[in-house]
Amino acid sequence: MSLKKHDFRENGDKIDYILTIADNSLILGQRMGELTGHGPTLEVDIACTNIALDLFGQVRSYFQYAAQLAEKSCTEDDLAFLRTEREYKNVLLVEQPNTNFAYVIAKQFLFDHYHFLFLNELQNSNDATLSAIAKKSIKEVSYHKRFSSDWVLRLGDGTSVSKEKIQKAINDLWPFTQELFEPNEAEEKAVELGYGVDIAKLQEEYKQAVEKVLIESTLEVPVFEFYQRGGKKGVHSEHMGYLLSDMQYMQRTYPGMKW
Amino acid sequence: MSLKKHDFRENGDKIDYILTIADNSLILGQRMGELTGHGPTLEVDIACTNIALDLFGQVRSYFQYAAQLAEKSCTEDDLAFLRTEREYKNVLLVEQPNTNFAYVIAKQFLFDHYHFLFLNELQNSNDATLSAIAKKSIKEVSYHKRFSSDWVLRLGDGTSVSKEKIQKAINDLWPFTQELFEPNEAEEKAVELGYGVDIAKLQEEYKQAVEKVLIESTLEVPVFEFYQRGGKKGVHSEHMGYLLSDMQYMQRTYPGMKW
Amino acid sequence: MSEKEIKNLEAIFEAKIARDEKIEPKDWMPEKYRKTHIRQMSQHAHSEIVGMLPEGNWITRAPSLRRKVALLAKVQDEAGHGLYLYSATETLGISREELYEQLHSGKAKYSSIFNYPTITWADIGAIGWLVDGAAIINQVPLCSTSFGPYARAMVRVCKEESFHQRQGYEIMLTLANGTPEQKEMAQDALNRWWWPSLMMFGPTDDMSTHTEQSMKWKLKRKTNDELRQQFIDQTVPQANILGLSIPDPDLKWNEERGHYDFGPINWDEFWQVVKGHGPCNKERLQTRVDAWEEGEWVRDAAMAYAEKKAERKVKQAG
Amino acid sequence: MSEKEIKNLEAIFEAKIARDEKIEPKDWMPEKYRKTHIRQMSQHAHSEIVGMLPEGNWITRAPSLRRKVALLAKVQDEAGHGLYLYSATETLGISREELYEQLHSGKAKYSSIFNYPTITWADIGAIGWLVDGAAIINQVPLCSTSFGPYARAMVRVCKEESFHQRQGYEIMLTLANGTPEQKEMAQDALNRWWWPSLMMFGPTDDMSTHTEQSMKWKLKRKTNDELRQQFIDQTVPQANILGLSIPDPDLKWNEERGHYDFGPINWDEFWQVVKGHGPCNKERLQTRVDAWEEGEWVRDAAMAYAEKKAERKVKQAG
């Protein structure tokens, strides 16, 4: 099974928009889940698992709503597990590997600040369900943002080793931040019709918020001319295929079963 | 699709026997293939890819034969890609990860010596096809054995670093060697009916051959009381699931298509 | 302290335990009591932490979002259990670092059950149902053990464990009522986890040490064999509801005893795993050591940052 | 050497090239010739080695045994090409270690096309068809270039490349004749690889440097734009057979020119990737560096062993 836009008919655009939002949480949650049981301390392990849990909780709300909107009968799990790689709309940032704990934190930090600003606006969606999901999620994400920012601070202003590692992670992931603010088709349509967020407008505030933490962390703000993009159009990095082959394994191997 | 013994009817035992043989080459080849492009030198990269190519070539001969024997129509690819983890019969040894090059070599070395003795006997199978595959394969495997033994020698009698690494790899993989000589049901039946190899009888010669190389390599022969087994009965290590989720990804995601 | 004084303290201590009062960290306690508790409580904490790994193995591959969330939450609970069991152990005057060091060096043990691999999704169900089920039977009596911090930690642990156990059983139920392939997967998991679960209660009573002392301190209230029998009696009817067969040809109800009779346990396998030669002993320990070592720079950074912050505060105050 | 002697050698050298005779490593050659060849040949060797990575990405996931074997063999061929191109370059008096060092430090370039990700199986077909197709057009003239070792290496390379190209086209054909999903996969791969393939011929002639000198030395026989046109003219009919559309709305046959006209190339993207900011530049280089560094102890061991063996031989002989 593979779900395509034409299966969604009239709600196709809105469903695409929901996927564009929810896939970020899905893939970031999947990455965070990889860390469970392997964290640097038990406390951090628990906190990271918590973030994964929040993200998957959000994913379920979004996908359940999208499944309702779809004309062709489908479930949250069909949306989560049965699309092909090219049909996932998450930004490249969230699929980047957990190279080490600095990358885990930098990825989360760079996404959380966007996520917070995004949900803050999504609360004003003219779609009551999206607005409600945003209201519920923003409390969680506000905690994520504090957690990841605190760790950027600790690592940046910690030891010389940790400073080097977090700076490298921030530098390596920085080229993926621009994509957060470049709308895909579904996002443009969503703004037009009033249920979506005008993400381009969030960039300045994002920049300020992120830079503030970096500076407080005694880190340098990367300067880049070139950015990476593609995820939102389903053109992912080579990491994505491996992530999906594990994530989809059960649903692909045992099609149509209940778990 | 999932192929089970009852799909094979009267040839079920022989097919199981062929899978027991061929799955070793399949999974070892898959592991070797992971190294392609990442070898320590270009020359070694090429040699290792060659081994993978030989192994997959053997797999194709075995599986094509097994597919012929099966009553239910199936192909070599169905056998390679569409069984569940519990249906693969390879020994635990070959699925162990490529932790570093010492593990690549140690795994290959410990398998090659078995593989060579095994094929040497399989040439006498009363099944003409199996005997022919054995005759063709043993030339390749005799090269594999030389390659991996030479590298055990180089690493064992190389630097103190390499000695430590290869000794650790040999020690870690040693507990998986006993399973090579413990027949599963299909292997017992195969000996009874004259198309299979009495593997228990190979153990002494194996021990001598392997020990000779280890001693020449100035390495210690591990002494173990406890061994690991299970692969031949389809009870694999936790590594196997991840290996399969990649290996089967395409066939699972796009069922029934030609490539 | 004079011998008399010690005798006196011992008498007070024993009277307290006899009256079912709790021993608290600040209270006087015999050195053996302290040592035994450090050993058992840390072993228990280690089991929670190592126990995260076999289940964690299926987080990235859980078959549905609902199951993924439940599994994450379960593994997180285990981390939580580890956390408060370590904290409770620390009240006995040993540091978390020392406890980890004992685990990582192989000096401390953890429950052998976690040295078996989780090779299908049904194993996640079987672990919840059988392994948590066995753990609860072992642990419920500890809710009223004599050492206060341990008893209080166990109250919380047991509550969550029963939730996990029900969740595991529900996974098995879904599989057992699913397709033939799913039911086979469930049966296979039961086949592989049944005997190791029985081994969780430890050697038979005639082979077991420490029992008398542990009984006195309320670290134990029933013998290994009694607990094992309780587990079997409780689990067989559950398997029947699932329509799955217990992989023991000798299993049958003994009307006279009022219990199930069962076949011989493979104690060779038990000792092999206890001695470190189970299917996953090496990997489990290596995974923990790797996580710890790879996390060192992170912990160092957090420490350094906290110190800097404290210094700044002092400066500001001064 | 006197200026006159040098002039004389230069004259002999140029006459040789003009007569289509090969320059061999032992022959005198201008320093600039040597340097240019080291740069181009090593760049070519590096491209083979880095080029193993995007295709290697699908070895563990190839959809059939037949395709897996073909892919392994192809990537192995690339390693082989790298090997004899490095050897040919070494005849110019530079060591393999120096060449690697140039690659790993980012000083040397490799073909930018390998900085794009392979995200579906169809990309393996597209790379064979388009990337190898473009490479052949670039490389065939090099089979008769002036430097002997390079020319001879290229004869072998080109032979294998055409095999790879046919194999890639056959993958595309299978997909194009497959299910709608497969055809869509093929079209998508063509969409993503078309423009980067056109960029493989380098900047437009008016932006290109070195061309005149390279023409003289037969490192080049046609300009970038001529080669690009040749590639387009050859590839469009192949796409038609596949029933796939070239992702260029401006593409159309120009009767007058006897060539296809085509739309503007995104040179910003070209330069971004050349400057190291393509989708995979960082990862490709890191992967090579990692393989090299992780292999160091292995190479050291092989060296140490060879030395010991040689010593023993000497001792035995003595």
TrEMBL record, chains A, B:
InterPro entries membership: Aromatic_CoA_ox/epox (IPR052703), Ferritin-like (IPR012347), Ferritin-like_SF (IPR009078), PaaA_PaaC (IPR007814), PaaC (IPR011882)
One Pfam family from the record: PaaA_PaaC
EC number(s) on file: 1.14.13.149
Keywords carried by this UniProt record: Oxidoreductase
Domain of life assignment: Bacteria
GO MF: phenylacetyl-CoA 1,2-epoxidase activity
Protein name: 1,2-phenylacetyl-CoA epoxidase subunit PaaC
Gene this protein is translated from: paaC
From TrEMBL, chains C, D:
Coiled coil segments of this chain: none
Membrane-spanning residues: none
Gene3D superfamilies recorded: 1.20.1260.10
PANTHER family per the UniProt record, alphabetical: 1,2-PHENYLACETYL-COA EPOXIDASE, SUBUNIT A, PHENYLACETIC ACID DEGRADATION PROTEIN PAA
Protein name: 1,2-phenylacetyl-CoA epoxidase subunit PaaA
Organism whose genome encodes this protein: Mesonia sediminis
